[in-house]
Amino acid sequence: MAAAARTASRAFLRSTPATSSFRPAARSTRALLPTQVRASTRRGYASEAGKGGSSSIAIWAGLLGLGGAGAYFYLNGEKTPKGPFEATQADYQKVYDEIAARLANETDYDDGSYGPVLVRLAWHASGTYDKETNTGGSNGSTMRFAPESDHGANAGLKLARDFLEPVKAKFPWITYSDLWTLAGSAAIQELGGPQVPWRPGREDKDVAACTPDGRLPDAAKDHRHIRDVFIRMGFDDREMVALIGAHALGRAHKDRSGFDGPWDFSPTVFSNEFFRLLVEEKWNQRKWEGPTQFTDKGTSTLMMLPTDMALIKDKGFKQHVERYAKDNDAFFKEFSDVYVKLLELGVPFQSKPEDRFVFKPSE
Ligand code: HEM
């Protein structure tokens, strides 16, 4: 089903004339075929991580308790501790490669890629940040626990967390908070988006650090709400618009948010299509039983949320929507900068921004 939808979507992309209102952004073949072309590199996952048996699990558990934050003790063939081990860029690249391989192999999500829901997991883990109290943010990965996992805004994100469990099992030294944000960076790159430099340094916290419900935005609201929520995190108008451009990816689900449908015709390709369609299409309120959302006049198959429409109703936001609609390069650059900032909110790094890693995407 998902494969069929993906094929149809790509057939559409190939057949759509450049003059059509729905033409996709110019993309490389690699970007248009993010999952198909790499489906041959199948690997093993959780089963491999368990090869050492229960004794190695016990050792790992003990070492993780001692090490934390990416530092752990290396075990040689005899399984004896051999001095402290700091994970290097090469180690994190292996984590990236594993996520990329899973994205290529596990195609049973919606339009054929788990990438969109990984981007959303990293955003919801980070978007709880409050700059006044310096609470929330990606440092802690408290969405592992109820009540935060049960917050309405996080509906559906268990699928993303579960998708990453085999990666955590294979690389037990990485914290969940580093893993989830690294996965957000990887998903953007693997779906044909810009480089998203990333650095480690997040620690997992316990349930006591869960943030209160209501810190993430409510899609039924207007421009004032968008500003309230994103100013609390420390973003300006331009950054807010760039971030919401991630709605080029994925879709809304009736059984999660109540909203329904994709924002564009290529929901597994990162591009400025969200902005182009927002500006060039005519959007009507959808007539249905569900919450207020908007649908494109041309095909009635796409959707916009009330908060998305607020981006063209508000002058301060609209100037950036129009700019990104015309200039994909500007969108890529500014999105990358602001997504990096989002993923780092409230993290007490020991490293400097120039120490960030740029991961090599899969072939
Ligand atoms: C005003 C701000 C925002 C609102 C109100 C909002 C709301 C929503 C809603 C209602 C959904 C549908 C969830 C579902 O039913 O599965 C969604 C999906 C999504 N959002 Fe946002 N969002 C906002 C900002 C962002 C930002 C800043 C990002 C990333 C940088 C993002 C990335 C995504 C992605 C990738 C999906 C698709 C997920 C999937 O396909 O499973 N959103 N958003």
From TrEMBL:
GO annotation, biological process: cellular response to oxidative stress; hydrogen peroxide catabolic process; response to reactive oxygen species
A single GO cellular-component term on record: mitochondrial intermembrane space
Domain Plant heme peroxidase family profile residue range list: 97-356
TM region(s), chain numbering: 57-75
Top-tier EC class: oxidoreductase
Principal location class: mitochondrion
KW Manganese (keyword) present: no
Keywords: Heme, Iron, Membrane, Metal-binding, Mitochondrion, Oxidoreductase, Peroxidase, Transit peptide, Transmembrane, Transmembrane helix
InterPro entries given in the database record: Ccp1-like, Haem_peroxidase, Haem_peroxidase_sf, Peroxidase_I, Peroxidases_AS, Peroxidases_heam-ligand_BS
Compartments reported by the entry: Mitochondrion intermembrane space; Mitochondrion matrix
EC id: 1.11.1.-
Keyword Glycoprotein listed: no
Reactions it catalyzes: 2 Fe(II)-[cytochrome c] + H2O2 + 2 H(+) = 2 Fe(III)-[cytochrome c] + 2 H2O
UniProt cross-references to CDD domains, sorted A to Z: ascorbate_peroxidase (cd00691)
MF annotations from Gene Ontology: cytochrome-c peroxidase activity; heme binding; metal ion binding
Family of this protein: Belongs to the peroxidase family. Cytochrome c peroxidase subfamily.
Free-text function comment from the UniProt entry: Destroys radicals which are normally produced within the cells and which are toxic to biological systems.
Assembly and binders: Forms a one-to-one complex with cytochrome c.
Protein name in the entry: Peroxidase
Organism from which the protein derives: Penicillium angulare
